[in-house]
């Protein structure tokens, strides 16, 4: 009998003693052995200290001993692979810490220079070879999306987030016809309109005033926002006219608020990218949102963006129900090619549009910023590109290059692809999970349920395909070896889960870049300028101030 306990409590304490015993590698340790039991069950001044001691003991077990035991048991035989950091084998925390340094994929790439296969976390293995790309992402792969994607999945996930292969195939079929090149080219007038509106702003800035200074990164992002909103929903936000991304909307309660479109996308992803790699992401996220300004701001701006998206989708649905025939991506969500109604739920339509507006605006703006950066860092390359554009591009009365005249320009495409190679909008490895029975990847047998990936940043710096991999060299895409290099060129991923929007981003990039290099002279406002980056899910370039001046052509 334990003295001093109220009647009936003795059995509870004995049960608690059994429940909270923890196994050590040798022998047993009783968590209660170092403190009086009365402190845990009676309302005494020392009760809080005792409870904290117990919780810390349990935390020690969960955060250190249990992962360490799992690491030592090594049931999946992952200890044979080198760790990316000292503690990668027992915790995802080291990989998450890389996020705070700003450019996680560059750190992983450095580690891959010494080891073609790395262990990034307790259950995550990173490969770097073309054979691994085919095995993990190819059309015949048995691997499925998982890992970090499980922490972002929602009931009405868009095309990128959805995990189930059959669900993904069904969603992709709905959109595939609209994203065919022949159909996208019918929307060239929408892209041309945005190019025209952007050049009008640039013209106004530098006409009769000499060179003007603009933040190129900001302006091309406004361009891509306007382009994808028009292509997807046949709507205008007025960002290029105002020079900002602030959109005024009416809320569900009849009030009004202003939503920053770009930061509404970036803020929640900036926060989530800190923890999404951990299996306890969903549990800890609500806690962080209550104590962290980064996470609470991300949640609020994410909710604001969803309100904005809801307003845009509701307006498009209203026009459809009113019989207004519009030519955009939303049409394929309302009806099939035969005109039969799909009857999708509003939440499903909004989920797809969220993915389209996010990927369609952010990644293209990233690519345009990087290609201009590389061109200005390499004046000889810019000169050669300008000669090709001046010779072959056909422009309309407003000086906008037609897609038909630029889509087959080899050096223009080479400049874009070389920029995508060095700084792909998504640099990290896209997570897949091996099938339950296990799977062989590049000669290594990987146990079932293991997260595997190939970092895009590393794959596209493979010296076997890209000699002098850090050099911006568009001419490499014009050589006989370019076809072989495609095996390690995956800025749009690969296989059945490859980016459905690759054609539309090339249309936007080719039309805008050709129009700009033909119309303006550019230079860095600071001659020693170096672009800085922040890598969340996408690789975000920082501001890029350029001097622009009209050319005499």
TrEMBL record:
<keyword id="KW-0479">Metal-binding</keyword>
<keyword id="KW-1133">Transmembrane helix</keyword>
<dbReference type="InterPro" id="IPR017972">
    <property type="entry name" value="Cyt_P450_CS"/>
</dbReference>
<dbReference type="InterPro" id="IPR036396">
    <property type="entry name" value="Cyt_P450_sf"/>
</dbReference>
<dbReference type="GO" id="GO:0005506">
    <property type="term" value="F:iron ion binding"/>
</dbReference>
<dbReference type="GO" id="GO:0004497">
    <property type="term" value="F:monooxygenase activity"/>
</dbReference>
<feature type="binding site" description="axial binding residue">
    <location>
        <position position="499"/>
    </location>
    <ligand>
        <name>heme</name>
    </ligand>
</feature>
<protein>
    <submittedName>
        <fullName>Cytochrome P450</fullName>
    </submittedName>
</protein>
<dbReference type="InterPro" id="IPR050121">
    <property type="entry name" value="Cytochrome_P450_monoxygenase"/>
</dbReference>
<feature type="transmembrane region" description="Helical">
    <location>
        <begin position="50"/>
        <end position="72"/>
    </location>
</feature>
<keyword id="KW-0408">Iron</keyword>
<comment type="similarity">
    <text>Belongs to the cytochrome P450 family.</text>
</comment>
<keyword id="KW-0472">Membrane</keyword>
<dbReference type="GO" id="GO:0020037">
    <property type="term" value="F:heme binding"/>
</dbReference>
<dbReference type="InterPro" id="IPR002401">
    <property type="entry name" value="Cyt_P450_E_grp-I"/>
</dbReference>
<keyword id="KW-0349">Heme</keyword>
<dbReference type="InterPro" id="IPR001128">
    <property type="entry name" value="Cyt_P450"/>
</dbReference>
<keyword id="KW-0560">Oxidoreductase</keyword>
<dbReference type="GO" id="GO:0016705">
    <property type="term" value="F:oxidoreductase activity, acting on paired donors, with incorporation or reduction of molecular oxygen"/>
</dbReference>
<keyword id="KW-0812">Transmembrane</keyword>
<dbReference type="Pfam" id="PF00067">
    <property type="entry name" value="p450"/>
</dbReference>
<keyword id="KW-0503">Monooxygenase</keyword>
């Amino acid at each position: 009998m334990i003295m001093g306990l109220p009647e009936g409590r003795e059995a509870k304490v004995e049960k608690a003693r059994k429940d909270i015993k923890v196994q050590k590698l040798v022998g047993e340790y009783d968590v209660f052995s170092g403190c009086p039991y009365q402190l845990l069950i009676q309302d005494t001044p020392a009760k809080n200290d005792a409870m904290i001691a117990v919780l810390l003991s349990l935390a020690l077990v969960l955060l250190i001993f249990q992962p360490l035991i799992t690491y030592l048991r090594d049931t999946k035989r992952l200890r044979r692979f080198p760790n990316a950091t000292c503690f990668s084998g027992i915790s995802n925390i080291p990989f998450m810490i890389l996020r705070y340094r700003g450019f996680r994929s560059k750190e992983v790439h450095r580690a891959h220079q010494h080891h073609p296969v790395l262990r990034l976390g307790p259950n995550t293995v990173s490969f770097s070879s073309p054979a691994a790309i085919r095995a993990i992402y190819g059309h015949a792969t048995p691997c499925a999306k998982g890992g970090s994607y499980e922490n972002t999945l929602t009931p009405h996930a868009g095309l990128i987030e959805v995990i189930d292969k059959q669900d993904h195939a069904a969603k992709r079929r709905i959109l595939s016809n609209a994203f065919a090149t022949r159909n996208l080219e019918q929307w060239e007038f929408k892209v041309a309109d945005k190019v025209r509106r952007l050049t009008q702003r640039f013209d106004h800035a530098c006409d009769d005033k000499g060179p003007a200074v603009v933040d190129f990164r900001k302006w091309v992002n406004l361009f891509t926002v306007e382009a994808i909103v028009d292509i997807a929903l046949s709507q205008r936000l007025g960002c290029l006219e105002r020079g900002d991304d602030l959109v005024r909307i009416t809320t569900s309660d009849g009030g009004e608020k202003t939503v920053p479109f770009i930061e509404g996308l970036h803020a929640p992803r900036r926060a989530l990218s800190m923890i999404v790699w951990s299996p306890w992401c969903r549990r800890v996220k609500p806690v962080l949102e209550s104590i962290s300004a980064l996470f609470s701001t991300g949640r609020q701006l994410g909710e604001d963006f969803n309100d904005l998206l809801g307003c845009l989708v509701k307006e498009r649905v209203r026009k459809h129900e009113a019989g207004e025939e519009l030519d955009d991506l939303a049409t394929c969500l309302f009806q099939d090619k035969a005109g039969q109604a799909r009857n999708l739920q509003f939440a499903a339509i909004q989920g797809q549009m969220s993915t389209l507006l996010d990927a369609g605006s952010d990644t293209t703006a990233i690519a345009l910023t990087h290609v201009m950066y590389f061109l200005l860092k390499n004046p000889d390359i810019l000169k050669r590109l300008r000669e090709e554009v001046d010779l072959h591009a056909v422009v309309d009365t407003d000086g906008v290059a037609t897609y038909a005249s630029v889509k087959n320009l080899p050096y223009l495409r080479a400049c874009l692809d070389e920029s995508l190679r060095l700084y792909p909008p998504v640099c990290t490895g896209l997570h897949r999970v091996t099938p339950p029975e296990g799977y062989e990847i590049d000669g290594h047998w990987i146990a079932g349920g293991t997260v595997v990936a190939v970092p895009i940043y590393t794959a596209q710096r493979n010296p076997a395909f890209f000699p002098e991999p850090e050099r911006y060299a568009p001419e490499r895409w014009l050589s006989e070896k370019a076809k072989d290099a495609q095996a390690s060129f995956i800025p749009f991923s690969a296989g059945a889960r490859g980016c459905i929007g690759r054609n539309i981003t090339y249309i936007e990039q080719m039309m805008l870049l050709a129009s700009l290099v033909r119309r303006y002279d550019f230079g860095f406002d600071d001659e020693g300028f170096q672009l800085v980056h922040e890598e969340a899910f996408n690789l975000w370039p920082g501001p890029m101030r350029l001097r622009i001046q009209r050319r005499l052509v």
